[in-house]
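JOB MANIFEST
job_type = single_chain_structure
chain_count = 1
residues = 211
[input]
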Amino acid sequence: MHGEASRRLYMRVTTLASSYLSVGVIAAWDADDASEGTNAKVIYSIEKNVIHERTGEAIFRVNPQSGLIQTALCCLDRETTPEYHIQVVATDGGGLKGTGTVVVRLADVNDNSPRLARQLWELEVDETWGKGPPNDTTILEVSAADRDTSNYFYYRVVEASGWGWEHFSMRSVGAVGQLYAIKTLDYENDTHRRGFKFMVQVTDRVSILRG
């Protein structure tokens, strides 16, 4: 066994949200004299990898010379597993080793569509006839859910989606959508009295805002 057996292992980890991307670079320092033999030459490897449950393949790989860690397969999903731990090894030319743990945290990507909390909302509202124009009073709050962590929900009434859609509009307030009347609702009007039926839609506009 040659020279200095101990070494310090430095790790730099970059968060990721997809596959075949660079995670980070590990770097080891060897106290042996690099000008004498190969004892100071360091080779990197992964001693304890993470195995994909479905395929049985290793999720990460490391370049033996540069120490660059990359994903080895597609695709990593933060909503399924937000964090991975792998154990890396640096081995010198004399066979001495230094180990370290790399923690890989996945950054969130806006890759899930929002879902409305319900498929159908039914309600009764007062008519606005004789009270002047509608005053933007909220008559219904609609909510949605999304598995992504960063969301900016935008709610709207879908045009031409059913009877009476043009009488209503929506505003987005935080995570909810508020429905309100923009035209007179008259109980004495036979068609109004039979009710209105239309569709509302929610979209996640995080990617638009980031762009």
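[summary]
Confidence is low (pLDDT under 50) at residues 1-17, 207-211.
The chain has two domains: 7-105, 115-210.
exit_status = 0
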